[in-house]
Fold this sequence. Notes:
This protein is mostly beta strands. The chain is built from 2 helices and 46 strands. The strands form 10 sheets. A 9-stranded antiparallel beta sheet has the order 6-7-8-9-18-15-14-11-12, with no helix packed on it. Strands 40, 41, 42, 43, 44, 45 and 46 form a 7-stranded antiparallel beta sheet that branches. The protein is elongated and about 125 Å long.
Amino acid sequence: MRKYLPWLFILSFLLVTSAQAAVLENNYIKIIVNDGPWDTGRFTLETTGGDPARLEDDFQELLFGGADPWSSYTTIRIDGTDYVFGGPTQRRAGFELPYGQQVAGPQVIGGTIQTTYRIGPLEVTQILSIVRSNTTGLDDTMQIQYRIINKGSQTHRIGIRLLLDTKLGMEDGAPIRLGEQVISTETALGSAQIPEFWQAFDNLENPQVIAQGTLRGGDLTAPNAVLIANWGSLADKSWHVPLTGQGFIREGEDEPDTAFALFWEGELAPGQAKSYTTHYGLGGVTISRGRLSLGVTSPREVIRGQSFKIIAYIENIEQGSVENGYVRLELPGGFSTSRSQERKLGKVEGGRAFTVEWTVFAGEMARSGASYTVTVGGDNCEPVTATRQITIVGPPRITLNCVPPAIEKDKERWVLAGDKAREPIWIFPVKVEVANRGDSPSSVEINCRDVEHVALALPYDRYKFIGTLEPGQSYSFIWYFAPQSFSGATGKIEIVAKYMDWEERARCSIYYPKLNSQLSLKQRKSSVTPGDTVGLDLWVRNAPALGSYSAVVLYDPLFLEPVSVSRGTAVRGRDFSWQQVGEGSIRLEGNLNEQRDVREDTLATLYFKARVPGLAELKVIPVSPVYPQVDHIIKIEEASK
Length: 641
C-alpha cells in the first residue's frame, strides 16, 4: 500500500487526468513511459508473455505503477544541487524537487523511447529500449540509459541516482540474491562490492516472477554505489539516505516494499558528453525441485578467453534439517575454476536459503553448446541436479573508418569536388563508418579525440553514441568540421571508438586550399540615368583577423556626386566615418570593435547621384589591410524621352 500526503491525495484525485504514455513492448515485456501532464518521463516495466516456459509470470509488474508511472524516478545532481528528471509531480516520490525544461519526448524513436530535458547547463536524454538478457538469452530486459551533454562553459560535478521501485507480480518484498548473499534488510554496496547482476524471487519451489538487475560487464556502466532499502526512505530523499539496518518495511506500515537506488558520479567538462547504462528485466534460472531445491543461473553466452559467474541457489523447503549437505559443480572440458568444485554445506536447517558462486574461465578448448551440471544433496536426501548449456562466442570487433571530403577552390570559395552546382561550403563533412565484424554484440561510443587545423563545427559535438551493434551490423553518419583559417591547411582528425574494454582508432586528413582576401563593389540597381541615386555595397571576403580598415574611394566628379556613406554590417557600434579628402576622393574608416575572421560581409555602402550620361569609373584602394584594388564602372544612360 502506497502512502500519499493526505491533502495531496485529494488534490491529485481532482487534477490528474488519465495518464498518457509512450509504450514499447514485445512478446516478453512492456515498457511504459509517462507522457504527462504530471510525472513526465517516469517509467514502469511489466511482463507480457514473460518466460515462455512459465505461465506464472505472464502480465505481471516488475516495477510499481502500471499504466501511470510515478514511483520510480531519477535524480540529476549538478554541483551538489538535486533536480528530478522529467516533469513536475504531485505525489510523494521526488515531491518539491526542481525540474528542468522539456526539450523532446517521450517519443518512440526506432526501438527506443527517448525523453530529453535541459537541466541547468546539462542536456539529459533518457533512452529506454528492450535488449537481450544475459541469463535468459531472450529480449526480456529493459536497457536504461542516460546521456548527458554539458552545454555550458564550465566543468561541473554531476551525479545520477536511479530509483527503481521493484515489484515482482504480487510480491513487493522478495529477498535479493546478490552474489553469495541473500539480502532481506537495508544494505549499502560500495563500488568494489557491486556484482555483475542480482536476482530476486520469493522462493525456489514456485517463483512467480524472477527479476534481474545487471550492474556491470559488457557495455554497462558500473554504479559507484547501490542502496537497497524500503521505497519510502528512498522516495523521500533525493540522494543518500541513512540506513538503520531494518527490513524492507516502511516505518508505520506492515508490508515490505523493496527499492533500489543506483548512483553514478563524475565530472563533465564543457562540451563533454557521457553515457550511463544499466539493465533491469527478467532473470534466467534453471530450477530443480526436491527436498533441497536448486536454482542455477549463469550467462547464456560467454566470450572465449573471459571469465563468468555460475551461481547456485539452494533452499531447504521442508521443516526438517539435512545433515552433511553439499553442492557440486561439474564442468565440461575447456572450462576451469580456481575454487573447489565441491562445497560442504554442513547442516542445512529447514527453511534456510543460501547461495554458492563460482568464477569460471572459458578457455581456448571450451566447446560451444557444452553443458555444466550442479548437484545438491546430503544424508537421507535424494540429490537434485540442474544443467545449463553455455554458448561460446567470440568477442565483438569494431572497425572504424572515416572518409574525408575532397575540397576544391572556385572563385575564392571552398566547394566539394564533383558538385556540379559548385555551392560554397563553410563546414567540411567527414563520413564515419562503424561496423561490428565480431561474433557478439556491443554498444559503441565514438569521440573525436585530437583535432588539428580544423575544429568541430559544434563545440559540444565531440561525442557520438551509436548504441548496440549486433554482429555484422554497421552504421554511418556525417561529422562536421570547420576550417581554422582562410590560409589553407591539412586538417588532421583522430576518431576513437570505445567498446567493452577496447578502443579502435581511425585517422583522416582534410586538405583545404588557401582563399585569398578580396574586396568587391556590388551595384544595387542596374539601370541608372542622370538624377538617379545609386548605392554600391563594399564587400570584403575571406578576411582573417580583421579588426579595422581604411580605404580611399576614387570617383569621377564629372559623372558622380557623393551623397552619403553608411557603415556596413561588419562594422559594429558607431565607430565609422567618411570624409571627402579632395575632389573625386573619399576616405573611409571603420572599426569592427574586435578582431575576427570575416567570411563575407559589407564594410560600407556608398551613395552617388548620377550627373550626366557616360561611363563613371570607381576605384577602391585599400590602405589597411592591404587588399587588391577594386575597379568598377557605372553605366549612366540617357533618360528616355
